Amino acid sequence: MTDAEMVTTDDGAGLWTSRTGRGRPLVLCHGGPGLWDMFGDVAAMLADLATVVRWDQRGCGRSEPCAGPWTTDRFVADLDAVRTHHALDRPVLLGHSWGAQLALSYALAHPERVAALVYVSGTGIDPVPSWHGTYRDQFTARLDEVPERHARWRELPDGDREKAVLQWSVEFEDRERALEQAGRMAEPWFGINRECSKALNAETKRTWGTPELYAACQALDVPVLVVDGERDIRPRWAVDSLERALPNVTRVILPGAGHLPWAEDPKGFREAVAAALS
Known about the structure:
The protein contains twelve helices and eight strands. By secondary structure, the chain is an alpha/beta fold. An eight-stranded mixed sheet has the order 1-2-4-3-5-6-7-8. Helix 2 crosses helix 3 (about 100-110). The protein has a single domain, classed as Alpha/Beta hydrolase fold, catalytic domain (Rossmann fold), CATH 3.40.50. Pfam families: Abhydrolase_1. This is Alpha/beta hydrolase. One of its GO terms (molecular function) is aminopeptidase activity.
């Protein structure tokens, strides 16, 4: 049974949260930035293994509209407000894509409050230009598989639901079901917070890849599980930078899976996360 409630941050923002399952506390951090929690399947998959807390990040999804601020430090504080509200003592954090970066940032800021980190489909800690060109090339190649979809994607405005579904369809290795699976991500549709997305992506481009970040990761005294879908169009070698830096890391690569590995290899994904929880 879902237990949904709002959490109020120290600056008055209202964050939607949901708590389900039983067992070791696990907090899920969704991707984006500017999107909302799409972890319903993951929460159900892990309900017998963990007390799963999901949340919509500030100004996104079911959380209350707000004017920001759109910074990693603010989102780290919001995540801590969720943890505190639900009285979670050293939960495991699982972050996906942008959420993996957020969960890592939280662990670096508050390692004593984290039992373990599950870093799913992230992009490592090197500067964004080191991998982003390869990603864009693979993104374009996937869209070009069905030229009329690519043409339709180009003509739609940013933030449009249909455009988002077409864009998200490139994330799945199963090309026959890709559009269907992307459509599920957009149900329900809450709209993309473009201001949030633009600001946080710009911050990442400015700040990721610094010597200070590498040093912080090298000193991180938290067990980390890195989970990759082998067929993610974001190059998996980008994550090598993080794997090299971390002193206590395990990496699981799920063959035949794309950017949302739980959707295409649910058994492998559950087994990997279960190991981190135990």
